[in-house]
User: Fold TTF1 factor from Hypocryptadius cinnamomeus.
Amino acid sequence: VDLDTARQELEEFIPHVKNISDSSIKKMAGRDLMRFREFKKQGMAVKFGRFTQKENKQIRKNVEEFLALTGIDSAEKLLFTSRYPKDKHIIQRLKTEHHFCEKVSEGIPRPWRLIYYRARKMFDPNNYKGRYSMEEKEQLKKYQALHGNDWKKISELMSRSNLSVAMKFSEIKSAINYGPWTEEETRKLMSAVKDVMRTKLRTENSSSLSSLEESNADLWIDREQLYQPLPWTEIETKVGSRYWRQCKQKWNSILTNKLTRGQKLHKGTNGLRTKISLIKRLYETKAEDASEVNWDELSNAIGDVPRAYVQSKFYRLKVSFVPLWKRRTFSEIIDYLYENTLPELEEKL
Assistant:
């Protein structure tokens, strides 16, 4: 399939395909297009977002079957081959001969790249090391001074995942202020978010942005774009006095306040109504996993708030009302809230 045809056909499955580079389109044409066609025949849509428990089990099954097929003795060797330079060529040959890409993504209606990243996260022993000790934090600072932001190199030296060392260093270097946000900090945050959104829009649609700028109109960012993931470590750097997670929480708070025009959804009678409505609507979805919930649709129904507001509201509900919630499945948590917590809240209201 030629490049233009592949891009055109992939657009049916991946709406944002016009923003994907030619080299990535070529890889997707080889690894994904045939699979997507098969899923379409079966009436299955291509999925994005959080992986379900069912999909995680399928990835685990696919990896274990590929190990049995090839004789490679560990998932770490299979998915982090560069950590084993002596075995690298043999492992790469086996992966090619036995169609690694196709086997690992079998039965999962998602782009292969996302499945691969998910498998690496699941099987990386360095992902589950717990809290950083003081010695590790000092090590991390020294390695960053030596190697800059080469997180792959630093992750190997520390036996931690790339993401873990990058985010931990971001936390360490931040001049964290735990007090209330000042007006100046809030202005910096708003400006930083606007800057990154402007850059993002310029990359995605330069013609419409330039016409906006030429007319001196204020940059319009619609609701959908506001909810997209933002580069929080970059925003943290621009704010200067807050850790990235604080910036994210504050931004969600600002969005909630603006979209609800300052209504106190989380307090008093309104707070009870919000909890009751959320439990009922989650129960009606009959979702088996959090990733099956359309949080944007739910946030609209609750009161035109950001999805992060609804997700944090649900988190507080399960922590506050569901005993041993960590041991329960998503659907068991919803059932408990509906059967036990809902009547209490309605009586209180």
Q: What stands out?
A: Confidence is low (pLDDT under 50) at residues 207-220. Residues 134-173 form a domain with the Arc Repressor Mutant, subunit A fold (CATH 1.10.10).
